[in-house]
Design brief:
The chain folds into 2 domains: 2-107 and 289-326, 3-Layer(aba) Sandwich (Rossmann fold); 111-282 and 335-353, Dihydrodipicolinate Reductase, domain 2. Helices cover 35% and strands 24% of the residues. It has helices at 2-11, 25-35, 43-50, 64-73, 88-100, 115-125, 144-149, 159-175, 190-193, 298-314, 328-346; strands at residues 20-21, 39-40, 54-57, 77-80, 105-107, 132-142, 179-187, 201-208, 213-222, 230-238, 242-246, 254-257, 273-276, 284-287, 293-296, 352-353. Helix 5 packs antiparallel against helix 11. The longest helix is centred in the C-terminal third of the chain and has 19 residues, at 328-346. The radius of gyration is 20 Å and the shape is globular.
Length: 357
Amino acid sequence: MHLRALSQFARDGHGELAALVDLDPQILEQRSAEFGVPTYDNLERMLDEVQPDGVTIATPDHLHREIAIECLRRGINVLVEKPMDVTVEGCREMMRVAEEHGCLLQVDFMKRKDPYHIDLESRIRKGQIGDVQYGYSWMEDRIEVPRDWLPSWVSSSDPAWFLGVHVFDLIRWLVKSDVTAVSATASTGKLRSIGIDTYDAVQAKLLFESGVSFSVDVAWHLPDANEAIVNQGIKAVGSDGWMIVDSQDRGARGCLTGPVGAAVGSDTREAGASMFTPNLGLFLQRTDLWNNPVYAGYGIESIQDFAFNVAYLTGGGALADLSGYPSGRDGLEATKITTAVHESIDRGGELVQLEKQ
């Protein structure tokens, strides 16, 4: 998704896709052929030779910090995938280094770019459901995500880190308030039965400074036969109304034979016919008149937003003038929530108070 977004940014004349770094030579060969990008297997050598204006980081979660800090110390702007880091201390260090070197530190919380979520945020802000009182959100992946997508580091993650941070940030952004306390429990069994040592699901209750409360369910063990790779949605209830956004089922549905494809990753269900509900809001690919690929969707826009911010800065713009992007502070708050979720799980579901910034 990063290469799609940035190659299109370059093709439209806004900048240059300068390099790709990866440790897997097969990935480097495949992506170079597809996107025409120069490749490196060493981060420091790439930074020395290319001297990029911005770097996007899409490594496993626990490897974000070291790469981000290396870039920020060189004065390079950074977009980091969620979660920003898996420790509160790591997030704060990244923020400190970014501030010391005057760099943009942005987090790819792409759910904020979903047009349905933008509409929901606007209606809440305008008071169309009154004062938000409570809500519920869910995000559930098919079992192929932990089993097939992340085989080398799945046991270092779980549904709260892989999915929950999306939802935690989205709710903070919608209600414009910080979380003060969390209680959580977790379910196990299915993944451990196939040798994957992590939670199947996490159930959390978030309490906000404003008095709002939200319940969140995240899971990644739905059966292979589930018709969507991800099932997701959110409901907000206010003093004068309510609104639900079904973030997965948006009106397209079918029963297809063979691999049906997916917005991100690949659908592994290749035998026989399968039910399918595409999420074209996340990602849509078509071709232009010259047969070039054209990418759209909030998964693309959230990455290109960073590229446009970098272009603004390299063109002489001031970092202080940028606003509205998911910042290091947002990344820190999401990590604070997620670490508190795990602390509550370890303490049998006890209410855990979050430390203030």
